[in-house]
Structures are given as structure tokens and as C-alpha cells.
Amino acid sequence: MKEKRSDESFFRRLTRHQLFIPVAALLALVLFNLIADPSFFSISLKENSLGNPVLSGNIISVLDNASELVLLAIGMTLVTASSGGQDISVGATMAIAGSVILRLVCGGQVSADTMQAPLFLAVLAGIVVTMAFGAFNGALVAYFKIQPMVATLIMFTAGRSIAAWINNNQLPFINDVAFKYAGTFLPGIPVPTPVFITLFMILVFWLVLKFTNLGLYTQAVGINANSSRLNGLDPKKIKLLTYVILGACVAIAGFIRVSRSGSINYSRIAENIEMDAILAVALGGNSLGGGKFNVYGSILGAYVIQFLTTTLYKYNVPSTALPAYKAVVVILLVVLSAPVVREKLSRMKKSSAKAAKEVA
Amino acid sequence: MPKEIAVDKQGRLAGRPAMSDTNMLLTITVLVFFVMYIAAVVFLGGGFSKPQSFLNILNNNASLIVLSCGMSIVMITGGIDISVGAVTGLVCMNCAVHLELQGGSIITALLLGLGIGLAFGIVQGFLVAHLGIQPFIVSLAGMFFAKGMTTIVSKEPVRVTGESFLAIKNIRVTVPGLGSNNKLGQYVPAYVEVGVLIALAVVVILFCVLRWTKLGRSFYAVGGNNQSANMLGINVRRTKFLAHVLCGLLAGLGGILYFLHVGSGDVANGAGDEMNAIASSIIGGTLLTGGVGNIVGTFFGVLSLNTIKRIVSTLGFDEAWWSNITVAAMICLFLIIQSIILMRKNKK
Amino acid sequence: MQEGAILEMRGISKFFPGVKALQNVDFTLRAGEIHALMGENGAGKSTLIKCLTGVYPKDEGEIYMAGHDKAVSIRSPQDAQNIGISTVYQEITLCPNLTVAENMYIGRTKGNLANWRKMNQGAGKILRDLGIPALPNQQLSSCSIAVQQMVAIARAVDMDCKVLILDEPTSSLDEQEVQKLFGLMRDLKAKGVGIIFVTHFLEQVYEVCDRITVLRDGQLVGEYVIEDMPRVLLVSKMLGKDLDDMADIKSESGTAADMSGTPVLEAQDLCSNAGIKPFDFSIHKGEVNGFTGLLGSGRSECVRAIFGADRVTGGSVKMDGKDVKIHKPLDAMKSGIGYLPEDRKGDGIVGDLSVRENIILALQVMKGFFRPFSRAQAEKFADEYIKRLEIKTASSDTPINSLSGGNQQKCIVARWLLTDPKYLILDEPTRGIDIGTKIEIQKLVLQLAAEGKSVTFISSEIDEMLRTCSRLIVMRDRKAVGELSGEDLTQSKIMATIAGGDTQ
């Protein structure tokens, strides 16, 4: 008797844990692919266009292509936690970042064969610019008290236009192989570079959360800004900081994205990625209304979304129809985690357990 | 501290109450629109001074007017529906396919369109109101779903060539007394399309509903304070549900009007219209937080949005990119104005 | 049902997971009676009310109303409203974005159309009859909280209720408004309405009630007629023990205040954007002083100005004789000041964070962004204060909003004690708290003073302040009008100073 009860409470505790949903979703996807076609998981060594041996396979593709989304999810988690809302301009700002970087490496021309400026400087410029736009969003939210989704609507609308304006409406492209290392492969290394960049950034965040009070302050401000202020915090500055941090994440994500192809298409780059980023945060078990957060849940959520996308591609779902499938999955997950539904399910479990007892 | 109303010597209440939030924001919106339009007429002349150019704003945006009204209603209850643009595209595509490839009649196409919108509204409303899921996520999924379904129905654009349809599409309802001379010196009366009449009717009906019916007032109550509305005896769930259903239905109607205007189905139809609807609502004085908003303001919001776009293109800027930037700047401006006014008001 | 009773609740029980909120509670309300429902926090008062008004479904027991043969079933607030039970809650349950008139009628009209003229006329009449200073077509959010509450009551009154429940209605009202409310209540009483008055204010209970029902730990202690119930007996019933220690607190520790030395804090012409007139203030080492006055007289605003919680617009502050600039809370904290805010839920606790995180928060902020406490260090701090202040919590990881009000308050006190302040400001630390914890906090204040700290103590209950403070600053209409100490510290002298000069 006693053992049963402790089992139950363990299961209950398990399902209530914040990471349950993304882990469960991941397991579900893995299981599905195992059953449907185990060759999904095969990894092989191939030669890329430069003649270097590189790893390829669906799993590699998931890890590689999720990189931008993971970065955005990290920043979006902080923004959601501190301000209780979401930044829907991240896709458009990625376009701006990419545009700035390309302008610098192409030296203002339509195309260039070698980088006209040190890559490091170009990326830094991109980071500074997007952090400035992040500060703009943050100021509207923190100082003018405008709702985040509405405030970022501005950059959502104008961002891609600004990106195009930066390059005078032209579509620059860079032929220098070295530029593409960051988005594809470093010579001699079989693992795609974005994976390394992402791991590095996750490590950086882990260090930041461990060695600063960013986590505590962000949560406090998101839960109760008044109380935080009376404890000596400045909620406005902290909210602003989270938007600026998101800006930095966007810049690196934008860099990776343009580095994959060496060029940019203003209206298509990172299209709809903001929705995926918000989804990743929600899948990670974080409340979209702000407060307590777990950034690792969001990171896991980002990989889950990419896994889903790759699975659907394998089964020849056209990319334009992809959103429909994502929608169904999203709804399913969100419905299952709704408190009302959970209550009903647990009541059903209890009554079926009761019935089982009576029969036995 | 909010002001106490003074009581005069005989104990009667003195003075007039301060303007409500809703009315104040509406006043700003209408003023800004008129100032903008008049300035355009005065300084840019030409295109703006013809009555037809004003009416063309209506002609080109009948769908957006209807969508924005639906969006405002959901926003008043404190929710949001970002699927309306995608639903518009879906409805448009379905109508086109139905008429052109499946040999349906116009009536059935209309019913199909409304039905699709209604279905989206019902499902989303149920998830938001009865399961308590956040409207942003629900309508985000709705948007994804609608976008995907549109391509599944048909990847290629479908143009409708049926005679009876074209006849309706090309109806021009002349507005008595307005008109101008065209290049040949002939007097051409100003006209509106059928869709505009439907859109205006919708605006009037919704205005009445929001102002005078129990349901309309409960939208405001729920948006103002969820828990209070519950305690006051309003069925909050039902109200939120109906708001989403109404928005979905209007999205369906918007899709039909869009279809009536362009005459074909295309995956790009309606793209971004949800943001235009939100922008129009905000410019029109609807607060995303709920409880404040009105249909007349939203109507002027649509007008303002499009006036600004036209001003930009008349000034010779590269329309595609610059109109976006100006719309964004306008939203920014209105948000800041609203924020300052409300912060001032609530400090008193 | 009993003679003259309009409401009878029998054997009501309500369970929550792990908690027996109500056990077999009976409650009877007679027509034309004002009946107080009292008990410390956790006694079950609000649960009983919520069972009566359909917010919670009861687990056991029956409710009988006059005019109904069988027990009535109340499943929702609408049901309660329909059988004649109206409630006015402490938090304003009206819609701030609607007009006064609309708030009075919404949810009640039968038809589908809103008749604005009728609503405005009807509302206007009721507002005039009850003397409420508001216009029917005024947006509710532009009225003061007190007026909003009166509108809520007017709505209830207009619905011809048989039972009117007032849940802590006087918390945000000043003396005049309280008397108006009592006038309203007596009118209703004369009309035969039964009123359930839930409150913490002992004085008010004795002023206006006929009977008292006392709950403790979810069970019924008893129902008493007011004449048969002296105050001390009532409090002992609520606490379940004798209260000799309440009277003798002060005499245990003498005043250790060093009034001759430089004041720990000295403020001159201090004013803030909260609208108080410039005031002077000083406090010495080991001294306990307080601000007193009617609600709204500016007591909280004064201490908030000292702490920098509101924007300071003028004046100077010296600590230990040296000038300091206090423009925001962090400045005050760094100068050694701590502040326990009046609004525990809105300004005090950070709800979803754990007890431990709440306790270390202030000290952590003072330490800096780049120097987080290790988990072990934080736990050590938290455990130390959980023990010292006897905070009842499952662990230091529990979210603070699952603790009772009194324990939450103790956590906030712990937070500021941890910063080892020179000067601690406690604004209404005992409001909404059970009597046991109230006494603990008062004892703590005196203990801190004995240790050489300075404390400012604000409370609506004058006897609490008399028990702990050695000096009182009297506020009236946002202006400091007097300072009392020594022999002048009596109830009557305080009242006189608050009321002001011209009583001739």
C-alpha cells in the first residue's frame, strides 16, 4: 500500500516538474522516429564542397539548424521573465544584424571576394547595433510602460525595411570562404560550427547565471516590480538589460544565419522565427506571463521544435505546410499542460484506480 | 490621488466628470486623422483632393476594416487573435478554389468562408475561455495552421473568371454628389465597391452591439477586471468565448471581402493583416490590456494607417520599405501618447 | 430554523489538500442584526464566507434561508445573489473602466439592451440617497478607493438583499467614511436586513454590532451577544489563552533610548511627490517612535519619504550628523535603514520566490550584482531567521505565498533584520495578522531598541503604539501637527491632538 502511494507521488512530482513537457515531447519524437524508420538516426561521414570530411545526418541537422533558435530562446526567456511579455521583433532584428555584418565585410559593395573588414569587427558592430535596438524596445517597455508585444510590434514592422535600407536595397553577398566557416564547417572539423557556437553561448549563460544575480533579479522584477524596488532594485534597468541581452543573442544568431549562405534576403531571412522562439520558451515550461524561469527548459524546447521540423521534412512535408503540423503539436502540448485538463486527467486516474481496487 | 467630486452647499453634486479613457483616446485618434488628411490635401494636393482617393482607402481596405473590428473586440476583452490574417488568406483561397475549380455557387462560397472563420473562432474561443490557455499561443497555432492549410488547398494562385462573380466584384455604387473630372474633362462620379457597404454595415452593427447590448457591455467588463466581472454575475467564460467566435466570424467575413476585392486566391493573401489589424486598433485607441476601445476609433485607425502609407508613397519614397517604417513610427507615436496620457491620468 | 433567523448554516466543513479549513461550523444570522464574524488568520472566516457565497463548494453541512423549506444549494456567486445574499469584498470587485452607474447595474438587468438613461437616473437617485459623492456617468477608476467601495455597497443595497456580507469594508476608509458606512448599516438593520461584518477592528465591532461569532483554527468557538462580552474576554476566546502578557509588555524592557546624543537620523523639511507637507523628523539610538493619525493623514508617506520609496522633492537628511542623499531605496539601505512596507502583498513579498530568496533579497541587492550568495550561505541565513523568528514553513524552499499572512510578515522582518540596519521602519507590521504574531512583533520591536537600534513603528491600533513607542508624531491632513512623549502618551491626548484645536 505505502509503496503505491509513494510511486504515485513520484509520478505526480515528475509530471509537475517544469522540464517534463519538453523532455516528454523529445522522447515522443524519438520514439516515433525509432518506430517509423530507425535510419532517421544514422550519422555518416561525407565530403563537403571543400573536400573536407564532415558529419551529416538528421540528428546533426537538428543540432546544427537549431542553433539560432536556441540563442533566441535564451534571450526571449529573460525578456519574458522580467517583463511578462514577448519580443516579436527578433526575426526582423536578425535581418538588421545580418545586414550590418554583410555591409562591413563587403565594404559597401554589392559583392566582394575577400572580407573587407575583420570578421570580428563586423560581428561586434552587428552586436552593438542590435543591442541598441534592444535598448529601444526595452525603453518602451520599461520606461513608457508599453506592453512588450505591442512595443516590439514597431521593430517587427520596420526592422526588415531598416535592414534593406542599410544596404541601399541591394542584396550583398560575400564569396570569401572564411566568412562561411561560422555557419558551416571549420576546415578539418567534422562537426558543424554553429553547434560549437551554441554550446559556447550556453556555457556563457550558465556562467552568468551562476556568478551574477541576473537570475534572481530578473525573477524578482517579473514577479513583483514594486517589491523589488523597495528592496533596492531598479526594475526599469533590469527590464532594459534583458532586452539588451536579447539583442546580443539576436546578433549572434543573425551572424550564424548569414554565415550559412554568405548572403541575405531581407523578407525571408528568419521568417517566423519569433513565433518559434516564443514557442520554445512556452514548451520549456516557462510562464509567458513572466516571473520564475528555467532557461534550460527553453533551450530544450528549441531543440524539440527543430527535431519536429526535421522529422516532418523527412516525411516530405512541404515547407509551406510545415506550420500547420507545428500548430497541431503546439495545441496538443499546450492543452495537455493546461491546469483544467490536468485536473480532469488526474481525477480520471484516481477514479480508475479506485475502480481497479474495487475489482481486485 | 483621484479627485473627489465636489458637493455643493445643497448637497448636490457639482461639476462634470473627467472624460473616460475610451473617449479621450478616441478624440485623439479622430483629431490626428483629420489633421493628417487635411495636411495631405493642402500640401500634397493632387491625389488627395479627389474624393475618389478617400473612397479608395475604403475600397482597398474593406477587409481590413472588418478584421480590425473583430480584433478590437477581442482586445477589449483582454485577449488577442493573431490568426486573422492567415484565416483571411485561407478563406480567400477556399472561395477561389470553390468557385473556379469545384464549380460552386457564390452563396455556397460565402457560407464556406463564414464557416471557416466561425470554426477557427469556436476552436480558439474554446481553448482560451474553457481551458484557460493563453490567447497568444492559441492564435499563434491558429495562424500556423491556417497558413499551412492554405498551401495544402492550393500552392498556385487561383484566379476566378466566372461571370456572375465578376459581375458582383465590379459593381460600383456611386456616391451621390461626389465626383471629379478625369483627364479627359469628363465628370466621373465617385464610387465604392460592394465590400465597403458591407464593411460599413458591420461597423455600425458592432458599434450598436458594444454600446447597447448586454453582451457588448460584458466585453468591456471582462476586459476591465476579470474577477470583478465574475463576481458581478457575468459569465466570463461565455463572454470570452463569444468574443473569439465573433472575431473568427469577422475574419471569415474579412476573407470574403478580400476575395471580393482581389478576385483570386493566393498564398500571400492576407499576410501581415493581423499586424495591420492590431496596429489599426491601437491607433484607434484600443488598449491591449483590455477594457478600453471602440469601433469608431478602430475605423479611423484603419483610415489613418492607410493615409500615412499613401502619403509616404506620394512623397516618392520607395513604397515597399518606407511604408513599413512609417507605419511603425506611427504605432510608436500613438503608443507613447497613450502611455503618457494614461500615466498622467492615473497619477491624479 | 430558529426564531427570527434569516440564515442558518449547520455543520459546515471544508477541506483543502492537507488542511481542514472548516470543521463542523454553525452560524446563525437574525433579521435586522449586525453580526460580527471574528477570528485570527487561519480561523476560517473567509472560507466560511466563500462557502456561503458560492465561491467554494462546501464539503459537508447545510445552509437554510428564511422562506425556503429545504436547504438551499449555492453553487455560484450568481446563485447566492439570486437568493438574496450580497457580498462586498475588501478588494474592489467592480470594473474600473466602466461608469459608476454601469457598475451598479451590470450583471443584474434582465433584458439584452442597456438603457443608459434609466441606469443613470436610477444610479443618481441611489447615490444621492446614500450621500455618496460620485456622478453616475463618471468612470469608476476616477473615484477614490473609499468611494468605489461605497458604490459597491450601494449596488448590494439596491439588490434588496436579505443578507449583506461586508468583508473588511473599513480597511481603506477614514473615520468620517466609517461613520457613513455605519449609518448605512444601521438603516439597513432597521429595514430587517441581516449584516455579517467581518473585521479585525475591535473598536468598530463594539460600536456597531449586536452579536459576535468567534472562529478558531477552523472550528466554532462560540456565538455571543455583545453586551455579555468584554474586550479582554473576546480576545482571549480568539486566541484561546489568557492575555496577561499583552498589558505588561512595556514594563519588561525600560527605555534604553539615548536621547542626548546625535540623532541616528535627522530630517528637515523633507517632502516628496506623494503630497505631504515638509516635515521635520529625528530619531535617536535605541529609541522607538511612531507616526499616528487618521487613515490618509500621511503617516506612510512620511516614512516612505525617509526611505526614498517615493520621489523626494525637497529637504535634507543627516545620519549620525553627516549629510546623506537618499533618492532611492538603495541609498537608504546603504545608509543602514530598513523598511517594512504597509502593503505586504503588493510591496512586501515576492510571491513565487521561496522563503529563502525573499529573506536574502535585500542583503543580496546591497552586496551587488556580481556577488551572489552561494546556496549554502543563503540557506544558512534563512535557517537562522526561520529559527529565530519561529517562522512556520515546510522548508526554506517553499514559495512564500503559500505561507499564512503572519509568517509572511515574519519573513519580511527577517529580510530587514538580516541587513543589520541602524534604523528600522515598520509600517503596519501587525495589520491583518493573528494576535499571537502581533504580540511577538511588538516584543521584537522593544528588543531591537534595547539592542541599540532605532525603530519607527506605525499602527492603526493606538494601544499597540502606546505599548511600544516612547514618542509619537501626530499627522493630520498630510501635515505633522504635533509630537507627544512621556506623560502625554495617552489615548485621550492623542485623540485630541489628532482632532486639532477648536473644540470649544
Instruction: Bin the helical content of chain C.
Output: 25-40%
List low-confidence stretches of chain A. 1-7
Low-confidence regions of chain C: 241-254
What strand line-up does the widest sheet of chain C have? 5-6-7-3-8-9
Helix share of residues of chain A? 55-70%
Question: Structural class of the secondary structure composition of chain C?
Answer: alpha/beta
Strand order of the largest sheet of chain A: 1-2
Largest sheet of chain C: 6 strands, mixed
Q: What Rg of chain A do the Cα atoms give?
A: 22 Å
Beta-strand residue fraction of chain C:
15-25%
Q: Enter the CATH topology name of the largest domain in chain C.
A: Rossmann fold
Molecular shape of chain A: globular
CATH class of the largest domain in chain C: Alpha Beta
The whole-number mean of residue pLDDT values of chain C reads 84
Radius of gyration computed on alpha carbons of chain C = 24 Å
Can you put this structure into words, describing what you see?
The complex is a heterotrimer of chains A (360), B (348) and C (504). Chain A is mainly α and 360 residues long. Helix content of chain A is 68%, strand content 4%. Chain A is built from 16 helices and four strands. Chain A has helices at 2-16, 20-36, 58-65, 67-83, 90-105, 119-142, 148-151, 153-166, 193-211, 214-223, 225-230, 235-261, 273-283, 295-314, 322-337, 339-359, and strands at 43-47, 53-57, 111-112, 173-174. Chain A has a two-stranded antiparallel sheet with strand order 1-2. In chain A, a hairpin with a 5-residue loop joins strand 1 and strand 2. In chain A, helix 4 (67-83) packs parallel to helix 9 (193-211), helix 4 (67-83) packs across helix 14 and helix 6 runs antiparallel to helix 12 (235-261). Chain A is globular. Chain B is mainly alpha-helical. Chain B has one domain: ABC transporter involved in vitamin B12 uptake, BtuC. In chain B, 70% of the residues lie in helices and 5% in strands. Chain B is built from 14 helices and four strands. Chain B has helices at residues 21-44, 46-49, 51-76, 84-100, 106-130, 135-153, 163-169, 194-212, 214-224, 226-231, 236-262, 273-283, 295-314, 319-347; strands spanning 158-159, 173-181, 187-192, 264-265. A two-stranded antiparallel sheet of chain B has the order 1-4. A two-stranded antiparallel ribbon of chain B has the order 2-3. In chain B, strand 2 and strand 3 form a beta hairpin. In chain B, helix 1 packs parallel to helix 13 (295-314), helix 4 (84-100) crosses helix 12 and helix 8 crosses helix 9 (214-224). The longest helix of chain B is centred in the last third of the chain and has 29 residues, at 319-347. Chain B starts with 20 loop residues before the first helix and ends with a helix. Chain C is α/β, with parallel strands linked by helices and 504 residues long. Chain C has helices at residues 45-52, 77-82, 100-105, 116-130, 145-158, 175-190, 202-208, 231-239, 244-252, 299-307, 329-334, 344-348, 355-367, 375-388, 405-418, 435-450, 462-468, 491-499; strands at residues 5-16, 19-30, 34-38, 60-65, 85-88, 163-167, 194-198, 211-216, 219-225, 265-272, 279-283, 288-293, 312-319, 322-324, 337-340, 423-427, 454-458, 471-476, 479-485. In chain C, strand 16 (423-427), helix 16 and strand 17 (454-458) form a beta-alpha-beta unit. In chain C, helix 13 packs across helix 14 (375-388) and helix 13 packs parallel to helix 15. Chain C starts with a strand and ends in a 5-residue tail after the last helix. Chains B and C meet through helix 9 and helix 10 of B and helix 2 of C.
